[in-house]
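#struct-help
A.M.: can someone run this one for me? Single chain, 167 residues.
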Amino acid sequence: MAISMYQASVPQLNKMLTNLSNILKKGEEFAGAKGLDSAVLVEGRLAPDMFPLSKQVQIACDQVKNGMARIAGVEPPKFEDNETTFAQLQERIAKTIAFANSLKPAQVDGTEAKEIKFSIKEWSFEFVGEQYLLTWIIPNFYFHVTAAYAILRHNGVEVGKMDYLGG
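D.P.: on it. Structure tokens below:
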């Protein structure tokens, strides 16, 4: 039996968003325990030309809300991209999970061949549903979740593989 588009997306994306939320909690607790301004972590980067933690979380959430909305044929929720605190990032993750949970399997399943077209700045993209999920949403999502994890780990937050995997 083949895995459905819904099974391949919503449950796993939500699991990883929950894991990301837990990783952020550890970051916030670390800042508090060390007497650090949490903004140092929220705006932390792995390299000068990479996005900060806040933007990594925003983009991970955008992959879920925008990507799954395109697949399901619904309007994605609009977020302002103005999060500057751990609490605001947690709220964004919670809103993203709530949106993903609002999608029904019937809205996602059967979209393997659906045409997906969109633009980001000057770039235009064309996919079919399955290709979009497997070669765009999922890899981009994991990239940004991993970058967020790595930023916190690089700054001394005690997170490990089981935090990432949700073990």
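A.M.: thanks! The chain is about 60% helix and 5% strand.
D.P.: also worth noting: The chain has a mean pLDDT of 97.
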